[in-house]
Amino acid sequence: MSLPADIRLPEHIAIIMDGNGRWAKQHHVPRQSGHAKGAEVFKTIAKYCESLEIKALTVYAFSTENWSRSETEVRYLMKLFREYLDDAFTMDSNSRIRFLGEKSRLPEDLLALMKKLEDDSSSNDGMVLNIALNYGGRAEITGVVRKIAEDAAEGRLSVGEIDEQLVSSYLYTAGLPDPDIILRPSGEKRISNFLLWQCAYSEFIYMDVLWPDFTTDMLDEAIVEYNKRNRRFGGR
Ligand code: IPE
Ligand code: IPE
Ligand code: MG
What we know:
Helices cover 41% and strands 14% of the residues. It is of the alpha/beta class. The chain has one domain: Decaprenyl diphosphate synthase-like (Undecaprenyl pyrophosphate synthetase, 3-Layer(aba) Sandwich), CATH 3.40.1180.10. Strands 3-4-2-1-5-6 form a six-stranded parallel beta sheet, with helices on both faces. Helix 1 (20-26) crosses helix 2 (31-52) and helix 3 packs parallel to helix 4 (108-121). It is globular, with a radius of gyration of 18 Å. The model has no long low-confidence stretch (mean pLDDT 96). The structure holds 3-methylbut-3-enyl trihydrogen diphosphate (IPE) (2 copies) and magnesium ion.
């Protein structure tokens, strides 16, 4: 499948990359293999979005709640992030890479790698590639509330200045349009603490496919589905 020429492309696509564990189970392989296959798919989809000239792609890689998984799984995921960040993003890409999430619990060497990628890609002028790693929507909003309170207490801001635009400017996604599409493969129909503020008027697209089986054709399908939606933003 390829996209019709008159298609309206979304500016910002957000994806909850879910279903790696179930994929592994289906294939009778360790959960790790599901995550590894999922990471490959991420690379393919990021490249594809870049080729479509999508303005921003945000992917959910690890949530603040995912720490509750087994130590082995968490350790493996951190190893996978390290490998991918080291490898995949030295690829010829013009994307600006940004990490959304709390830096606190992540291993030092991974944090250093994340910082290097953000710095090295900061002068690129292609797609913004946001990787949500140790991200939670509630944690993000709580952090914003704290920062606004500090700025107000220290006189950098007056309470009267606090409006929706100001709140948006304190988020990890400051300066970007809200996601037009939030795509969740795996068959689950929930938000799982992803982009809680930014999803106010996003179109939700749920797909019955596990993330490691996700293809560029399926992304096309999602964009076609998005084109059928009538976005009203509360108007008529
Ligand atoms: C998504 O796949 C990857 C992460 C959350 C890190 P899952 O590991 O949640 O896969 P399922 O949902 O168990 O199939
Ligand atoms: C959401 O998936 C987080 C990521 C894909 C990184 P989960 O698998 O953690 O979400 P729940 O537990 O099904 O809500
Ligand atoms: Mg899951």
